[in-house]
Amino acid sequence: MSDSNGCEDEPHRTVRNVVFVVLDTARAKSVDAKLMPTLTDLAEAGTAFENAFATAPWTLPSHASIFTGTYPSEHGTHGGHTYLDGDLRTLPEAFADAGFETVGVSNNTWITEEFGFDRGFDDLRKGWQYIQSDADMGAVVRGENLREKLTATRNRLFDGNPLVNAANVLYSEFVQPSGDDGADRASDWVADWLGSRDGEQPFFLFCNFIEPHVEYDPPREYAKRFLPDDASYEDATAIRQDPRAYDCEEYDLSDHEFAMLRGLYRAELAYVDHQLGRLRTALENAGEWEDTLFVVCGDHGEHIGEHGFFGHQYNLYDTVLNVPLVFCGGPFTDGGRRHDLVQLLDLPATLLETAGVDDPALREQWSSQSLHPVSSDDTRDAIYAEYVAPQPSIDRLETRFGEVPECVQAFDRRLRTVRTAEYKYVRGDDGFERLHHVRTDPLERTDISDGEPQRVQALRRRLAGRFEPLEAAGASAAGASADADVEMQAGTKERLADLGYL
């Protein structure tokens, strides 16, 4: 028997179930005990990784890395190619083939069957839908005025089953809690599912909570706790939240407006922290908590005025790469705070080892290293990340805004970074490069590349050594499946546009 959430006497103990929760757009720098008491409790009972980094600064490539244990150059899923290659083995497939029940609830449009992320799941649900459907009616309820709502209703109602679509519209418009983007319903569904299952089969459960993503519109009672003293909820929620328009200098935001946006963002984090507590309670009520590894991470971070950016595109600053990562249960019990460098693509090796699962096919493809406390894998002395292609592309920005500023045109490049505990080097395929001494300059404000030519050369070689062997394989994979790229449904396009991706 385990004495505390899977904790056994054996040094290489395993757990029966795995629950993996992604807090979409959660950045490490905004997490603290006042804001997120549930996550803090999980960290104190388990293990928190202070230096965890995403492999990419946005949802699609980051989740693809998490699910496959590979870098964006390996899995080829990014702004230029949005479908997860069917030849890649995924973490849910590994759990399913090992006899686990595999279920998921996604509240992010990218992480659905439309982009290949349902593979291996017995059931992958869309949290924003009352009745599961391939048609997406989200654009109906997000129209800015009655005319837009009526137009969207007319265009989408008969895309699939009209009765199902009508039910989803009614749910989103009149039933879904104000300030909630699916987390409340997802938590309800998980609790119902846990309470109704027979309990004989181990399970892998995945959840994506998207509330911290633009637009920040937390419940009023949460927002009041984190807004500046002189800011009202009405003033804060009236601020235009259009990162791509901000990038293209269509409008500006004052320091005070950014302060209000940061308050709304923190309120969103507090709200999803409440949902984490609900998941834990559901596991406890179902008698599963003691046999479960509970893992929480952000998939990428967010700029809210830092470095002149709004959102999480076009750069590789730590603000968009450094994310919270907490393990609670099993061998991670009472593990304290670890400061070694880790990557989100290390999750497949870690979760499978902790669950006692070996999957040769996934192991053969991954760049993943297990974080299990007694793993034989080496610790990393550096992490790597990529921004393979702009999303949205510069062409799409020009279509929307006309001529875009020269500073935005410069974002039409691939970026890669290598980061050690002391230095961070960023290089673009257009020759752009920066070097930061992150130990003394954690905010990455001072480029020291001109004064450190030898260090730049060494890190440039290291970056090339990591990614050049992957380029041929990644290009071949993308080319082989290019004709199968996604023709998005209209509703999907509108949801992604609302999130700032199109």
Provide a descriptive summary of the structure in words:
It is a single chain. Helices cover 38% and strands 15% of the residues. The protein has 502 residues and is an alpha/beta fold. The chain has a domain at 17-128 and 176-381: Alkaline Phosphatase, subunit A. A hairpin with a 4-residue loop joins strand 14 (423-428) and strand 15 (433-437).
Which CATH-level-2 architecture of one domain?
3-Layer(aba) Sandwich
CATH class of one domain: Alpha Beta
Morphology: globular
Helix-and-strand structural type:
alpha/beta
At the fourth level of CATH, the homologous superfamily of one domain is Alkaline Phosphatase, subunit A
Q: How many β strands by DSSP?
A: 15
Residue share in helices?
A: 25-40%
Number of helices: 19
Compute the CA-based radius of gyration: 22 Å
Strand portion: 15-25%
CATH topology of one domain: Alkaline Phosphatase, subunit A
Mean residue pLDDT:
87
Query: Which residue ranges are poorly predicted, with pLDDT under 50 across at least 5 consecutive positions?
Result: 1-9, 137-150, 163-175, 476-484
| Terminal CA distance | 51 Å
Sheet having the most strands: 9 strands, mixed
Quick recap:
This protein has 502 residues and is α/β, with parallel strands linked by helices. It is 38% helix and 15% strand. It has helices at residues 37-45, 59-68, 72-75, 91-97, 138-141, 146-156, 162-175, 183-196, 220-226, 233-237, 243-247, 255-285, 318-321, 347-355, 360-365, 394-401, 406-409, 453-480, 490-498, and strands at 17-23, 47-53, 101-106, 123-126, 203-209, 292-298, 303-304, 310-311, 322-323, 325-328, 336-343, 383-387, 415-419, 423-428, 433-437.
